[in-house]
Amino acid sequence: MQLPIDSFELPNGLRVTLSEDHTAPIVAVNLWYHVGSANEPLDRTGFAHLFEHMLFQGSEHVAANEHFELVQRAGGTLNGSTWLERTNYYETVPSNQLALALWLEADRMARLVPAMTQEKLDTQRDVVKNERRWSVDNQPYGSWWEKLPALCFPHDHPFHHSLMGSMEHLSDATLEDVAAFFRMYYTPDNAVLSIVGDVGAEETRRLVDEHFGAIPRGNGRPPLADMAVTPTFGEWRREVVADDVMVPRLFLAMRSPILGSDEYYPASVAGAILGMGRGSRLHRQLVREQQLASSVMAFTFDLAKGSDLLILDATARPDVSGEALEAGVADVLDAMRHDGVTDDEVARAIALIATELITSLQSAQARADKLSQFATYFGDPSLVNRQVEAFERVTAPAVNRFAREFLGPDNRASLLYVPREAPDEVDDAAGGNVPGTTTHGEETR
Amino acid sequence: MSHGTRPAAGPPRPYIFPVSNREQLANGLTVYVVPLRRLPVATALLMSDAGAECDALALAGVGSLTVDVQPEGTTQHDGATLADAFEQLGGSLDTAVTWAHSEVSTTVTTARFGAAVHLLAEVVREPSFPESEVTRLREERMAELLQQRAEPRGLADDMFAHVCFAAESRYASPEGGEERTVAAITRDALVRHHGRYVVPARSALIVAGDVEVGAMLQLAEDALGSWRGDSAAPPEIAVAPRHQARMVHIVAKPDSPQSELRVGHLSVARRHADFHALSVMNAILGGLFNSRINLNLRETHAYTYGAFSHFEWRRLASSFETSTAVRSDVTGAAVREILGEIDRIRNDMVSPAELSLAVDYLTGVFPIRFETTAAIADALASREGYDLPGDYFDRYRERVAAVTAADVLRVAQLHLAPERLQVVAVGDPAIVRTDLEALQIGPVQLYDATGERMS
């Protein structure tokens, strides 16, 4: 199953990928800027995400909120998202509206600053603060995706701090910050544009050149702080959080090989054997047989720099303690590391992963986002066509090598939520920790 | 061309909703086959008219639990072996319940499709409902309900249904039931539910993807042709509002930084003739990002990350519902704005620009809704479950395009009833109670997280 791929680069550094598909009269336009929370100054946490909101507030030729209106009026869907190492903006529109979508993206890439006002910044700051309240502060376990990266990366590491940002830092953000961030990172040579759907190559190239060709190249960016970390944590670090939750929930992270490395594929297969589907080890043993957990899953963050994280997420049944849950999860990891995996388990995991990859590519926007991902991180969008075969090449010995190196107790970061009334129960296995406190290893970098 | 000029659209390219082939087997099972020439995948969805609307009131949630336990063992395989069989094919077995139907489904690559359909058929025809798995899954559902006591969004949704619909209506409880009713579900109840409602004449196999009609009809006959079972009539559903007058309901969640708000009331059935006009009206009021309610609460006032309205459709009734989470100290102000927007759309015709935005969006986005085999299978399941006409999707866009501003005004006046609105706020009573009382929109009642009244 091969997507047709046509890539080129404009003189100003914008890398463009086109994949034609005339099945439905729609086109997906997808833009990745290679900037994320990792690039924020440490006294401006949340800024990249706040900035993403500002991108929808208009540009020189587009009024406030007109971006959303124009795309929806054209019969399109749209959104954007901020992640640790990239920010994406995308819309899917009827294919006869390609020029509109490109014009909108080009206007905000080239001419955002004239439309930025203090009032817009103040409003979006409040909107983001509400988003923080809604997804983090007012949700059980909501703080996990702040606390887990903080536990897994050293204090000054670009992946350590909160992507949503603190209320204080959000309040500190200024209009000058917005302009400076824009000039630094929102330039064609720091961006990748992918276009997938019912459009012709010649016409698309012409439109891309017309709208983006004259945008000047950027003036360079500061390098990221050193992203290197040791391949494993070197210990089992723990944080216990007493919170407004009804049952314990454990997030157990392991450092794992980065997205795109050869070892990423056996790592993903190991994750699927552990926690993908009802036939996975964690589900069979913790949900079905021992009934310690009501749900359990495994996934990776898919980070392309420094280290990835393989994360297990297990929710305890009401009568089960956090300690018992964590011990149950650890037993499954220990057994897999000690006994290895079977060929059948590997075949099952590969079948699940491959089917999911192919199924997800039905959506033009999902395809476009994958093309942008491979172009941004590896400079080669055609890698999307080699993923299924890369997974199909994974063998049980390769998974076992991964398990021996990465699934041990010297590579675990446990973030355990427990109900407030419950006594602190986590047994210290890492040495010297008082239950209920945070421990971080000291990294030498 | 100067970069200041917004480009015009090219000539629109036609889109036709995929053609589906409909047959009925001798045993009464309906089979839909939708061949799609795209990627080498296909979705099989086996649905039955055995959804939440078929639950007896005292056993609300039995339909949901039935379909969840079906994959945990059949007369031929235990649950672990079944899961493994599906997953070796690369598919997961998904179960779901809606008000109108229950379903099992899977999506796999073409080469494995025949085997997947046979497994689906086994799960639907001959589940064994092992006692241990019934107990386990019932307890998992109870655990979910327990966890919801600390989860304000789910609390708000369930409380809203509870105050919209009379206690004797099945619609007052969630599709999955509530603690009291789920606790009472036994293995016998699941067996009965399955025996009465998961039968050929109440079921449909929907296949969408890289398949051929002839081969699929043969596959359906092989896997399901010998399936037998007699239908029974489900219980009647009472439809009545719980409260005749406007009221405010506060679910206490001390120290909440936000209030989860739901504002609305009981409304019309899915097949009502005003469905398309209501869809357009709702898009303008609170369905689009640039809707009146969202622009007001998010962009003008910055009270929230997002505010929306929608009709929660069911077969015999719906509920109209505005939904948002706002900073605790602006709870009263946000409710006032929502009530103001509901009044406004009832008092004056919407502008031509607002009307065209809603119509152009709903008609233009149509093909984007159906990119995947699963989306098409779901669309057919919905059409079947609500007993909509066979040409429902073919005619959708023209019926939306025919809606006028006068239609929008008429349905807003007829179907939005400010005097019956129920306001639910899950939040900190220390902050919100006085504000909500000060609005003087109706009596204010306080509840705890289990829905019990407090003084």
SSE diagram, text form:
The complex is a heterodimer of chains A (445) and B (455).
Chain A: E1 6-9, E2 15-20, E3 26-33, H1 47-54, H2 66-73, E4 77-82, E5 87-94, H3 98-110, H4 118-137, H5 144-152, H6 167-172, H7 175-185, E6 191-197, H8 201-212, E7 235-243, E8 249-256, H9 264-275, H10 281-289, E9 293-300, E10 308-316, H11 322-339, H12 343-360, H13 364-378, H14 387-392, H15 396-406, E11 411-419
Parallel strand pairs in A: 2-6, 7-11
Antiparallel strand pairs in A: 1-2, 3-5, 3-6, 4-5, 8-10, 8-11, 9-10
Chain B: E1 21-24, E2 30-35, E3 41-48, H1 62-69, H2 79-88, E4 94-97, E5 102-109, H3 113-125, H4 131-148, H5 152-164, H6 179-183, H7 187-197, E6 203-209, H8 213-224, E7 247-252, E8 258-267, H9 275-287, H10 292-300, E9 304-313, E10 318-327, H11 331-347, H12 352-364, H13 373-385, H14 392-401, H15 405-415, E11 422-427, H16 429-439, E12 444-447, E13 453-454
Parallel strand pairs in B: 2-6, 7-11, 7-12
Antiparallel strand pairs in B: 1-2, 3-5, 3-6, 4-5, 8-10, 8-11, 9-10, 12-13
Helix pairs in contact in B: 1-7, 3-8, 9-12, 9-15, 10-11, 11-15, 11-16, 12-14
